[in-house]
Design brief:
- This protein is about 30% helix and about 25% strand.
- The protein is globular and about 30 Å long.
- It starts with a strand and ends with a strand.
- About 30% of the residues are buried.
């Protein structure tokens, strides 16, 4: 079974650890990009804060499905 990860600011994502989500705290754009690049291969679903999604743009949320990247969703603001 794959894992779920979340990327974003601590205040937005910290509580998801209680649900077993792998929390990747990223407070600035460089940290967001680094967290995305270093996602473990076992991650099949990534939850992004809206800010993290804006930072990653098409890299994470491309217009076409891509089996090379995990399923990605964006948290509402």
């Amino acid at each position: 079974m794959g894992r779920v990860a979340v990327i974003g600011a601590r205040t937005s994502v910290g509580g998801l650890a209680l649900a077993g989500v792998e929390v990747l705290v990223a407070e600035d754009p460089d940290a967001v990009r680094r967290a995305w690049r270093e996602l473990p291969g076992t991650v099949v679903l990534v939850i992004l804060t809206a800010s993290a999604a804006e930072t990653l743009g098409a890299e994470a949320m491309g217009p076409e499905p891509d089996q090379a990247r995990p399923l990605t969703v964006v948290m509402p603001r």
